[in-house]
Specification:
Strand content of chain A: 15-25%
Strand order of the largest sheet of chain A: 1-4-5-8
CATH architecture of the largest domain in chain A: Up-down Bundle
Number of domains of chain A: 3
Oligomer: homotetramer
Shape of chain A: globular
Number of helices of chain A: 12
Number of strands of chain A: 10
CATH superfamily of the largest domain in chain A: Butyryl-CoA Dehydrogenase, subunit A, domain 3
Structural class of chain A: alpha+beta
């Protein structure tokens, strides 16, 4: 039923990744510029080492330079990388580029692959994804209003986007726009590649947010008669949602995997401080409330970890894992926030300060309840799938019974 | 790392068990007498069928008539049996007999095995376990006060026990008593087999409790100069705690496995009723609060299931799984209670009535926070183990660093 | 804004009530027969004492033999009575009679008052209330299906009711039935008085439930061409909902008041046991987890108490307190369950046994989430009222702004 | 028992405060510089208006320029001011100055009052409070290590302090230091006034923290042979803890009062957005999950409000309110965080951005679990007081019983 064990060679890769984290990534954290990330002179050598050790862009298929080892392996790897905000970038698997490469891989023309995919994979250029709109609930992507109208050899795009993460550093954006307003809800939109700098593609403002792990901001973008070549459509007309779904589904599980890294690190910090810090004459570790924090966190992290690997394993079997992915998205988000918060509480004022990574983890983690679909939507998705399954089973029984 | 998959032949056994549950066990539930169980004329034929289909007493090694298929398999089987309060008894794995058989297997003399173990395995006689005492916290078994003093060819037992489950139906009790008051805390006590009916072994009262799944009550027992043959000691003098630990550890995981069955069944009932029952013109299933109940329950059951199987798998690997067992004991107990409570809430007054099994599940489940060690002790155990591990790692690092 | 202080004379009444509880009611608890209550020979002398001390039926206006001291006073009194399951009956304020007397007071004809109200007030006869139906969600009373059709000088009632508490001991029932199926949803039904024993009024079964504080059961009742005199209508045709609302609103606050008594008593038991019981060499009271239980319970009880008195006080001011009543109904229900559960946990196995009142409190308390409207409905009511208020304020601002 | 009603003239003052908030304070929020506050040219005119309307420094006695209207009134006023991070400063009641003024009022010499107290009250200068130390748990103030040794006409201070809020803007600091290391734990320390700029008083660094409501930072300060005049002791030698307790107690309730303002504003924003924003074709307000958020928040805010006013009222009666203050400190902190978090969730990405005040509220609120004593300490304080009360009652009963 379940088999989450890495092979011996995978174990070896994971150990190598762990070593780079300890030797290079954690020590580099002190150079992080909030909202910007690592300076290139620090980042590039680490990336080079990762490439040399054959750990670069592990999420990609072998053909395109990745490792092609499946989702359980990725879960175990991302758990390691996720323990540092700069881990994924150092290992060539940083969002939102990863999601964009997956779309380009699936739907890109040879020319698009050459021009956009390859340099992104190599981290020579960065990219962003512009789907969410200020006037439409992000929880309901069928409502988007940005339009793309064909005019001769060009598409003309008009509309507003926001929370386009990384736009400030990107060379191009993947933009979702309605191409056929009269089609069925999930066939109205298409995806387009827009080069940054195209006239009419206006970077309005970097929306300030609670967390500062993003390197390239979260931008509001206005499209004013932005004209792009006809060939810049990604996939076929009307395929926008299909591609978005392909991008978001695995993206959610990637989040859950990285959360594990954050949880583990918070757990480590919590225990280490509890052993060290004294109050009223004894270490915090001897207070039962602190012990409860540790035990509850251990249980929840274990739950989170097994559920994430289970979802990944199901994906590897080629089975439908949407329910499992939705489950861990909302359940894991709560655990993530709770574990970090307990670690902060153990540290007291120190935990509230920026002297430990916990404070930044806490701010970043609040977004986990929101991005890639709010908790409320994932709960609904899970419930509706179960309800449908039970309804179908019931209907079958009715048919069977009436057939007797 | 993790592999919880049953083999094809195990799958076949599980399917067979599921079939017996549906065809025989669930339909027999209407004959349950609360606090007593199934009448023999209903129970015995089901047990016979289970034996014929080679599913009897699956927890035991092959040599003694069990299946010997390991703990992961037992988890999957007990998940099925646990969905009915009479499932375990029908399949020859009912507590407290199972725990007692495990001690007898480990420590019993050939004569004890012949006289006590074999008839219990075959469900010809029943047994009970008398450890907890009214004047001593059950969370601290080293404090027990009942004494056993050697007098010639006999042991003379004095003291009070309570919550000896099943005593009302038992042919013998396994009694824990202090044989060496001056020894180290975990070497003070020994175990004894006492035949019910031995003079001085007084069944004082069946302590009324919230739940009524027990068939033979929860008894207070007084031992007044109760004399038993010297040969009735179980194992060696001073081995009482070692044997108790051996009994309780796996017992806890068995509880967690059966809770899965209760959760699954509550989940089924919740969804089926939500699809059927209407309020304000639409099925309950369409209300978002009910959908949230379903999604949260699905997440928690998944967590509980994976953690239970994980602990079982670790035991099968011969690894120390005490942390994992403690985790699922307190974490699973909460989930169990919450899932049942949500299922009741969906049913409204009906859920509060005895017209569905949920009401009895709810009362029974409250004990899960208490029996085999309260939540508080398991949290403490988990925390202390983590703290010790981290302390040791820290010490090693100090040593390494000072060696440089 | 808020003034919850009893006058000196009210303080004196409360002290008197407290004394009777301690001297007579608590000691009588050992005579309770679960699901039946106190035997008359124990009950009647206590009731007599209460009457002599001018504390009988305090909820009623002075004219009809009550105290007429308002809802804040009743809150403080019910907090005292609610600490014992037999308190309200001993003091002449037991449900469902109290609710029925309120309807009779408001809507009863002089003849009905003489025949039904007065003997109920005096506890000479008992009564029940039959509104909920098995085929209709109790959360949506507008859906009831029982019909009452006028036939000459009689009403003919047909339909099914269930969870009619106390029916097994009642002399009459107040029955809700549809008299005008085509009217607006809240004007379709009327209330009727039906004497127990009237042909066609069939007590089908006492529905077994989790709790056993009810004295007269929770009955399923079928009405088969049950004919009653035309004069037995209560109030006017179509007033059924208006009267039910009048009955249920104050009923909900009465529940909340009595819950306080249960919480207080559970809190007392928790602390007393924590001081007394030792584990691992020290009293439970010294364990931080137990201290957390105490502190959290103290906070929640304080919240519950102030919110209940606040709602009562608002009612006394003649203000609309529906929001406040709905708030305390669902918020208090959770607190009630949590406080009892913690008290049980502190007691361990003993708390799970029937040796303390906690076990019965726990079973009874589960119904608090359901009766008089499930939590889900009260949450919805609160939210909709707030939403409406804010929407109205917003509309006013729009009007104001456009007028400028 | 409870009377929280403001008088008519108090109502009038509160209305005036509300008007200033709406007309001046909220509109000024857009000028806030995070971590710095309002520029003087915006702040000063508002402060002037507050002074003219006789609302300045309301927490102080009349003699010294305050309103002297008691704690219930202050609760109601602070609820209003607390809804904006700049409210308290605009109204002359900003921490940490308020706490410092209270100490100066109690213990200051006429000269200290003239030199330090009066200009602080008038907001001509600012001050800070340096108690917490990096090497000692803030939850255990008896452990502080900074020393003050008398040398002729001077005190010589040595040690480290941190989280001295506002130090960056202050003219003086109140510093706690050990004057008698051998005294009883609560009599070891004294308080001193140290002018900023005194040699040896080194502002090491502004400790970056999660929230940015503080105007003058949270500083680490080292005292290196810092010499101050002997007359700069505050109160008597050994009175440090007495004065600190006097400062912190009312400070905690002031926090709780202001939290109410934050909760109210978050609640407003949540509902207003839920009414406005649509998803899947209907306003968020129509989704049951959102309605549950509203209802749960309403209940919790009501609890928080009543408990805060209750504690204030008890203080006004001259009664010991330490238990009530501790209760609302930890209970209110949780509610504060939960209400803000729900408001953010309703806003989705917008709530996570800095486009609404919710994001800043969320970061600030996390500290509520920590400052002025962590939750864990307040829970312990409450529990120990209850335990002591019950133990005393029990002892009295034992004495009474033995006397009979």
């Amino acid at each position: 039923m379940y088999n989450f064990s890495p092979s011996t060679e995978q174990e070896e890769l994971l150990a190598r990744a762990r070593k780079i984290m300890e030797e290079d990534v954690y020590p580099a954290e002190k150079h992080i510029i909030p909202g910007v990330g690592l300076p290139a002179e620090i980042l590039k050598p680490i990336q080079q080492k990762v490439k040399e050790q054959n750990l670069w862009a592990a999420h990609l298929p072998i053909e395109i330079g990745g490792l092609g080892l499946g989702n359980v392996f990725l879960g175990l790897l991302n758990e390691i990388l996720g323990s540092s905000p700069i881990g994924p970038r150092c290992f060539g698997t940083a969002a939102p580029d990863t999601g964009n490469t997956e779309i380009l891989l699936k739907a890109g023309t040879p020319k698009q692959i050459e021009k956009y995919l390859k340099p992104v994979i190599n981290d020579d250029i960065r990219s962003c994804f512009a789907m969410t709109e200020p006037d439409v609930s992000g929880a309901d992507p069928t409502g988007i209003q940005t339009s793309a109208v064909r005019d001769g050899n060009e598409w003309v795009l008009n509309g507003k986007k926001w929370f386009a993460s990384n736009a400030g550093l990107s060379s191009f954006a993947i933009v979702m726009a309605v191409t056929n307003p009269d089609a069925a809800p999930h066939e109205r939109a298409s995806m387009f590649i827009v080069d940054i700098g195209t006239p009419g593609f206006e970077l309005i403002r970097d929306i300030a947010v609670m967390g500062d792990f993003s390197e390239g901001g979260h931008w509001e973008i206005h499209l004013n008669n932005c004209r792009i070549p006809a060939e810049n459509i990604l996939g076929k007309e009307g395929e926008g949602f299909k591609l978005a779904q392909m991008r978001l589904g695995p993206g959610r599980i990637t989040h859950a995997m990285r959360w594990l890294g954050v949880m583990n690190r918070s757990f480590d910090l919590m225990i280490e401080y509890a052993l060290k810090r004294k109050t009223r004459g004894k270490p915090l570790a001897e207070f039962q409330t602190i012990q409860n924090f540790i035990a509850d966190s251990a249980a929840e992290i274990s739950a989170s970890r097994l559920m994430t690997l289970h979802a990944a394993w199901k994906m590897d079997q080629g089975e439908d894992a949407r329910k499992e992915i939705a489950l861990i998205k909302f359940y894991g988000a709560k655990i993530l926030n709770d574990v970090i918060s307990r670690a902060i509480q153990v540290h007291g004022s120190l935990g509230y300060s920026k002297d430990t990574p916990l404070e930044a983890f806490y701010r970043e983690a609040r977004a986990a309840h929101i991005y890639d679909g709010p908790d409320e939507v994932h709960r609904m998705v899970v419930a509706k799938r179960y309800l449908k399954e039970y309804q179908m089973k019931k209907n079958e029984e009715l048919v069977e019974n009436s057939a007797r």
